[in-house]
Amino acid sequence: MPDLDLTTDHKALDDDLAARRYFAKFEGITRRLTGVAEEMEKDRAFSAMDSDVLEGYVRAIAATFKALSLKYLVSGRLDGIGQKHLTIDLHESGFPIFQELVTMANDTAQAARHLEGMPSPAQLKDEMVRQIVGERVVPTRLQYAMSQRLYYEALQKGGLYFPQMHPQAQWIADVSGGRRGYLVHWGVYDSQLNVPVIYLMEVVDSGRKALPLDERRWPAAQAHLMAQSVGGLKLITIAKGFDTDFDDLHPKRLRRLHLGPMYSSAFTLQTGPIREVLDEAKSPKGEDWALAWTLEELESERVEVEKGWFSDIEREVFKLDPFSGRGVETGATRVTRSLILPQRPFQVLAEKDPAGFRDVRKFVVGKEGRVLVYG
């Protein structure tokens, strides 16, 4: 693999073998994330509904990586075409850059039109065989055409993770007083951090009409939440803004999950203990990685009633982390940092025991895919 360019945060994987190794690594990582969610369900950090929702987003992320792997299947082997290399953020991300997902979203809107003008897979295979047998050359351009055909088919199939995953509402239970409880969830791909970010908000609805069926409130709530889904905003800012703008929607719990960064000595540049751990582990193929997973949580502590013009209005009072004033800084009730990694890097991490990782939960992936929890 070519040397990484140290002068930029972005790196184009201009070798098709390197790109394939990169996508294979992420295929393994996303496959393990379901096991992590299951472990968090066991210790009641997530409910069964939470796990199902997160699994849906992980499947979408995996589908996006699969689609991109098809797009760049012959990366670096063709001159004279447009974007032919996957670009990743090699500093504090390890994921594709934001523009890759924007381009993919735009391609999805045009997928049907592209497929209409392309030869079928059978035709492309026949042409490849003729070129290999008759002309005795590698049919690189036909291979590229096939990769693009498969890419657009994957886009048309759907189930992808886009830069914006608009809010959905799932009923949890009826609440006393004729109210309804919902889990509202949505996602974004952070344009600054270049990582997927998933939001989960538990809401009590005191409106007359069920929220997902309310043609007045639901579109407004969706638009409000997407506009507030910015990494720099604290959870308390998002929750208070929602609570203020929607008098009959009461946010009881808001969580934000950052899936990343991904660290790998083969593809990313990292500093400090994590670099030393990955370098010293000298992990075999497919096991040279660690994925950070950060969960921010904000919970309502009590309700205060304000006098309105026509009726009393309920306002949530949120509980902030009481230790060392960190709640004001984080804008959350608690922040839990986790690290998902294979056995060999974990063994090195356990031996070195760096101070900054002692409070980090470790989810260790065994050789058979089983996930064990430490810390």
Detailed description of the structure:
The chain has helices at residues 16-42, 48-71, 98-109, 111-116, 121-135, 140-157, 217-227, 235-245, 273-281, 326-330, 343-352; strands at 10-13, 86-89, 164-175, 179-189, 196-205, 249-263, 290-307, 312-319, 334-342, 361-365, 371-374. It is 39% helix and 27% strand. It has eleven helices and eleven strands. The protein has two domains: 10-157, no CATH class; 164-374, no CATH class. With 375 residues, it is α+β, with helices and mostly antiparallel strands.
Salient structural properties:
globular; 39% helix; alpha+beta; disordered N terminus; 2 domains; 375 residues; two-stranded antiparallel sheet; single chain; nine-stranded mixed β-sheet
SSE blueprint:
Layout: E1 10-13, H1 16-42, H2 48-71, E2 86-89, H3 98-109, H4 111-116, H5 121-135, H6 140-157, E3 164-175, E4 179-189, E5 196-205, H7 217-227, H8 235-245, E6 249-263, H9 273-281, E7 290-307, E8 312-319, H10 326-330, E9 334-342, H11 343-352, E10 361-365, E11 371-374
Parallel strand pairs: 9-10
Antiparallel strand pairs: 1-2, 3-4, 4-5, 5-6, 6-7, 7-8, 7-9, 10-11
Helix pairs in contact: 1-2, 2-6, 5-6, 9-11
Give a short synopsis of this structure.
With 375 residues, the chain is α+β, with helices and mostly antiparallel strands.
List the uncertain runs: 1-7
Distance between the termini: 36 Å
Task: Output the helix-strand order.
Answer: EHHEHHHHEEEHHEHEEHEHEE
Radius of gyration: 23 Å
Largest sheet, if any?
9 strands, mixed
Secondary structure tally: strands: 11
The backbone outline, from C-alpha atoms, is globular
Roughly what percent helix?
Answer: 25-40%
Mean pLDDT: 90
- Supply the number of helical segments: 11
**Percent of residues in β-strands:** 25-35%
Number of domains: 2
Q: Structural class per helix/strand content?
A: alpha+beta
